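Hey L., structure's done. Input below.
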Amino acid sequence: MKDVPTYLPSGTILPCNLPREDVRDVFICPTAGSLAELQAGSIVGSASLRRQSQILYRYPSLKVINFRGNVQTRLRKLKEGEVHATLLAFAGLKRLGMIQHVTCLLSTDEMLPAIAQGAIGIACRSNDDKMAGYLAALNHEETRLAVSCERAFLETLDGSCRTPIAGYAFRDKDGFCSFRGLIASPDGTRVLETSRRGAYTYEDMVSMGVDAGKELKERAGPAFFDCYNNVDR
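Output:
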């Protein structure tokens, strides 16, 4: 679900989410135990503007470069010394059976995940009641509601996987929805964050996502969003 557009083709619905995998990112490095342990000037490879901006915001002494390829290619480039470290989604590594490469897990406080990271969705035709019934049996409602909250936030900001936006909704120990979202400039010099807490219901959680998006959009101003429309990708 991470890179699924917030709009769906006409006649399509997304009624089902499978149980969500771990949403955290991981740090992979052969010489340091964490981002904080990297020496000034160390090169971190990442193709994600979300990761790049948060790294630069918290560790401005590091250098971040665009780092593309599938997981195997990125790990090979890391081994060959093209970069000193990289970040990947823990969910992807678990599904590939490659968690042995993980140096450490990054908390969501240190690296807020992408919208819907770790979630798998199943779409079907809106007029196919039989299929919708089958999918209802597979649906994990807690995940569906969390993803709906995050995607409402993303849609309000009119963002995509090509913009530095992050957000995470989850059920807290008291049973409420806890949501945190951020937007960032690509160079990490400016990060705006917000949070919400409310009832764990579809209507309330979508409302929280929309409200959080409107707040950050207003605080940022139009010039802020222009900056990553013009960034060299």
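Helices lie at 49-58, 71-79, 90-96, 129-138, 141-157, 202-220, 222-229. The first strand starts at residue 12 and ends at 17.

-- N.
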